[in-house]
Design brief:
Number of strands: 0
Strand content: under 5%
Order of helices and strands: HHHH
Helix content: over 70%
Shape: globular
CATH architecture: Up-down Bundle
Low-confidence stretches: 1-32
Largest sheet: none
Number of helices: 4
CATH topology: Substrate Binding Domain Of Dnak, Chain:A, Domain 2
């Protein structure tokens, strides 16, 4: 079972990366946050799905980096509250996006949902950091 999963990852990842490069290249390049959307009525391509997944992973990375900055500026009590809040938010986000426990998103719609929630959480964390910076 494990060897099949590893084989699938080894085969799928380069294909997904190539698809993302193609999709991003047609849409303003890296960092634009926009993935090429197929013509109306056509299926979502691997390239678009991969591009969306890459955008989500970039947002998630930013969220984690900003979360660390926020945590480092808080008192011990506030850290505990934010950690609890973050765990509750992850459960809430996953439920709203149709992700089951320990499951990876499979549909492009799920990835877009995760991206939307993550973008809003990133804004919330940035606001908290800004508020802390202004109160010093």
């Amino acid at each position: 079972m494990m060897s099949k999963m590893v084989f699938s990852l080894v085969v799928a990842l380069p294909i997904l990366a190539l698809g993302a490069t193609v999709a991003q290249g047609r849409n303003g390049g890296e960092g634009s946050g926009a993935c090429e959307v197929p013509d109306e009525g056509s299926a979502v391509s691997w390239g678009v799905a991969s591009c969306s997944a890459n955008n989500f992973h970039d947002l998630d990375k930013q969220l984690n980096e900003r979360y660390k900055i926020l945590i480092n500026r808080l008192s011990m009590q506030d850290k505990l509250e934010i950690r609890k809040s973050e765990r509750e938010w992850i459960v809430f986000r996953n439920e709203k996006c149709g992700i089951k426990l320990n499951e990876n998103p499979v549909a492009n719609v799920q990835v877009e949902c995760l991206s939307s929630f993550t973008r809003r959480r990133l804004e919330w964390i940035n606001d908290k950091i800004l508020h802390l910076s202004g109160s010093r």
